[in-house]
Structures are given as C-alpha cells and as structure tokens.
Amino acid sequence: MGIITAINTEPASTHRYLNSDRQNNDIRQFGVAGLMATAHSCTYMRDIASSRNLTAGETLFWEDDPIQYTYLIIDGSMKAYKLLPNGRSQITRFITTGEIISSPLIDNYSYSTEALGDCTILQLPQKRFDKIMAKDPALMKSIFGKLSIELQRTQKQILLLGRMPAIERVSNFLLDIAQRQNPQTAHFESDMLITLPMARADIADYLGLTIETVSRAFSKFRRDGLIDLPRPNLVRLRDQTRLRAQSHSLTG
Amino acid sequence: MGIITAINTEPASTHRYLNSDRQNNDIRQFGVAGLMATAHSCTYMRDIASSRNLTAGETLFWEDDPIQYTYLIIDGSMKAYKLLPNGRSQITRFITTGEIISSPLIDNYSYSTEALGDCTILQLPQKRFDKIMAKDPALMKSIFGKLSIELQRTQKQILLLGRMPAIERVSNFLLDIAQRQNPQTAHFESDMLITLPMARADIADYLGLTIETVSRAFSKFRRDGLIDLPRPNLVRLRDQTRLRAQSHSLTG
DNA sequence: CGCGGCATTGATCCCGGTCAAAGGTCGTGG
DNA sequence: CCACGACCTTTGACCGGGATCAATGCCGCG
C-alpha cells in the first residue's frame, strides 16, 4: 500500500528539540514528518490515513473552513496564504515534501492552502488524530515541538517583512530554500543548484514585494555574479558567502 | 503570600479552544493566565514559583539566552523583540498582565524581552514546569492551545507587515489594543478610552514603520475625528466603526 | 507558426523614510 | 509653585526605494 509505504520506509531523522528522557522500547519513527509515536499509535494512524492527489493550483482548504484533517505532504509543494478584502494576498508559509499541516486545538484554518505543482498528500481525520495524541504524550510532544519551530519561523518572517529592504528579503529567501533542499551540504557546497517550485508571484507574495521587484533582485544577483538562472525557476548559487553577507543572515 | 494570591484569586476565564471532554473533579483554574491544571499541579507550581519586580526598561532575557523559566505577567506590560546587526529592531509581540511567556521544547529564546513600565512577574523554573506538564495532559493541552493562538496572531502580523499601508497598520493596532484592554465591550462602546503602555518608537517597531509615520497616522485620525489624544499615550476612540472600516479589519 | 502565460526590463510616481526643527510633557530642583 | 531641562512627540521639507504602469522577451504548447 502506498500509504503504509509512505509511513514506514523513510529513514529516521534527528530531533534536536525533543527531550529523549523516556523509554524507547515501544517508540517508532513515524514517516517523513519525523514524528515520534508508540507502535500502537502508528498502526492506528496507518488504519485511518488515506492518500490523495492534488493537481497544480488545486486548493486543499480555505481560510475559515472547519478543520477536518491533519495533512502530511508525501510529494510536491504547497503554499499557505491569507487574503485581504482588496484582493492582495500574503503567503505565510511554503510547505514541502515531508512536512505536516496541523493546527491542533483550533476549530478553523487560519489560512488557505493551494498546491504549487502536482502533489500527493496523506490525510488523517483530525478528531481521531486528537484522540491518538491524547493517549500518546510522545506524539503530542512531537507535534508540540513542530508548532514551536513554526512559531520561531514566523517570528523571523516578521523581522524580515518589518525591517528588511527588498534585496535582503530575496537573498534570505534563496538561502532559506537552499538550506531546505539540501540541509546537509548547504553551507559547504560552493555551486549549489536549487529548484524553485513556486512562481515569481508567489515569491513576491511571500516576501511582501511585487513580482517586478523580485525579478529585479534576481537580475541584480545575476549581474553581480552571485547566481545563475539557467531557467526562471532553476537557480545556481555561485557565491553563497557573498549572498549571505548581504542577507543579514536570518538563516543561521 | 503575593504569589499564591496571584495564582488563586483571579476569576475563571473562558477557554474557547479547549475541548472540555474530561472530568472536572480535580481540575482547577490556574491564575490570570487561564491555564487548566490538576490540583496537584497547582500546589506544586505554587511551591516552585517566585515573584519578581522589573523596572521600566529592564531586560528580562536576551535572544539566544538559554531558557530558564516560564513567566507569567502579574502586572505591567512588556515587549518581545528581535534585533538586526544594523541596529534595527522589530517587536514581535506586546505582552500584558495575565499573559505568559513560554517556549516549551525549545533550548534558547528566539527574542529579547524588556519591561515597558514597571512590572511584576511570576517565574517557574522551566525544567520543573516541563515535568509537571509531562504528568498533566490538561496543562500541556492548555499551553499547547496558547501556542496555537500565538501562531495565529503572528500570521495576522505577517499579513499586516507584508501587505498593509501605514494607515491600516495603525488602525489595526489601535483596534487590537482596544479589544485587549476591554474584551467585553470593545464592539459596542462608542467612546472608549485606551491607555498605550508603550512609546511611539515601540509602536513603530511593532508595525514596521518609523516614529514619524506612526505619529502622522495618529494626527490624521485626530483631524478626521476618529480619535482624541488627551495625552500622547491616552487615546479615545470616537468612531470605532469608521476606524474599523479603514483597517481592513484583521480584528474580527 | 502564432498564441497565451510568465518573466524581464524600462519609465514614472508615490508612500513612507530621512533629516531637521519646533512643540509638549514630565520630573527635578530651586 | 514655578523654572529649567531632558526626552518624547509632532510637524514640515525633501528624498529614495519600491510600486505601478507599460512594453518587450521568452518559452511551451496547440
């Protein structure tokens, strides 16, 4: 089964934020999301999970919709965004393979989500997931940790939006994507190639800029020899050090 | 004892975000923060908590400091902020009486905090608090809920910083403060008086603007008859409806 | 080959930042 | 109680970064 495969075959990832002062005997790694759960929780989740495909541009849910599922992205990328009455939109988060969409203890989504390209996702009914969590402190702690991390990330985003000029926002964005696509080698790789799953308009909506300003920033980086742009959404980082220097590094 | 008083005498507040499908027999309301905990947790917290006074401008902790305590503000207001190498600062949150400062499962603070005026706070050693939480799912759930709410708030702040012009930011700020200072009557009160515990510089750092722009927005609201400014940090909302109309209401 | 959608580039405009000065407010000391 | 001074706020004049408007380029697909 695709679902079970998705849950079971992924290698263990590290969990810096988890205190590991509890017995490991009936604890298993749970899927790409890097969640910790008891064996019992795992089998139960396997039973209630179902997979689903999304095509490019498809909306998964809208802001204010009642929360029905916790989602795990198996493949592809999505955007989470908020809309203003005047039609302007602000992307709060890009969500990629291996990440979860979960808002426990909340009744309605606080943002809409849309697939950037074709996606495969796994969905777990929220109420049942809540019950599993209630009986599995390790799982709850795990989700808890993800929430904390997400909160820290949004705080960085607030600093970026409130106090950084366009050039710094874009360089931070590139370095951030680079790190997410290549966590191990990001700092050392001198000529790293990254793929942007989103269009310029999405980058602009994420950074609080316009398409034109984002494009101009990319062009400036190309002129200055910091990046190559073989295609609009293929970026080669040619001088990561210099890029980081002018980003005021939000990325540690 | 001041501490115990602070924990025990406050009236119960509502908890929209809490499922109340568990037995209420040994559950007690816990202090102004509106946390739920077992009686046992309460007495234990009472024992390990200590109170502390801060004078205006005093720093409680710096960004990147190791996390030592969970704090509860008994009286006064604080700001949480991040700094950039070039000296610019961005306030991510204002924290007032009855609110908590807690970053569970994280090793270091992701922001600095400073008292806006004189403050009284309650502090609970983080490690002991973690242990209490591990044994008290209701308390954990409660903190969990607060974290979720805070995440939603930061997402609104991202929308504000990324996509709103100065006037809308300031009107949203005023309406937000109004609602926090007077949750019950905020919508009906026609001539509501609010006290700003922070200076213009702090408002500017919170809204991603400059002191001058904030001041100009206040003056414009005064000219347009939306507010009175008996003193720099005393605001009377004279036409909340019209204020809300031009805020693109982030405040429901 | 031509069309449609996205990205780039250029020209101009305007909101909000910067710089500078004047006005208020409050605490302190005479 | 008033006078002084430090600091905060307000107001004005000007400037610049990024938005807006518009044209051109690029690429995939029918």
Which helices and strands, and how do they pair?
The structure is a homodimer of 252-residue chains.
Chain A: H1 2-8, E1 27-30, E2 35-38, H2 39-48, E3 50-54, E4 59-61, E5 69-75, E6 77-83, E7 89-96, E8 100-101, E9 112-115, E10 119-125, H3 126-135, H4 137-163, H5 166-181, E11 192-195, H6 200-207, H7 211-223, E12 227-231, E13 234-237, H8 240-245
Antiparallel strand pairs in A: 1-2, 3-10, 4-9, 5-8, 5-10, 6-7, 6-9, 11-13, 12-13
Helix pairs in contact in A: 2-3, 3-4, 5-7, 6-7
Chain A binds a DNA duplex (30 and 30 nucleotides) through residues 165-166, 199-201, 209-213, 215-216, 218-219, 231-232.
Q: What does this protein look like?
A:
- The structure is a homodimer of 252-residue chains.
- The first copy, chain A, is built from 8 helices and 13 strands.
- The first copy, chain A, is α+β, with helices and mostly antiparallel strands.
- In chain A, strand 1 and strand 2 form a beta hairpin.
- In chain A, helix 2 packs antiparallel against helix 3, helix 3 packs across helix 4 and helix 6 crosses helix 7.
- The relative contact order of chain A is 0.13.
- The N terminus of chain A is likely disordered.
- At the A-B interface, strand 7 and helix 4 of A face strand 7 and helix 4 of B.
- The structure holds a DNA duplex (30 and 30 nucleotides).
Subunit arrangement of the protein: homodimer
Biggest beta sheet summary of chain A:
4 strands, antiparallel
Tally of DSSP helical segments of chain A: 8
In spatial order, strands of the major sheet of chain A run: 3-10-5-8
Relevant CATH superfamily of the largest domain in chain A: Jelly Rolls
Structural shape of chain A: globular
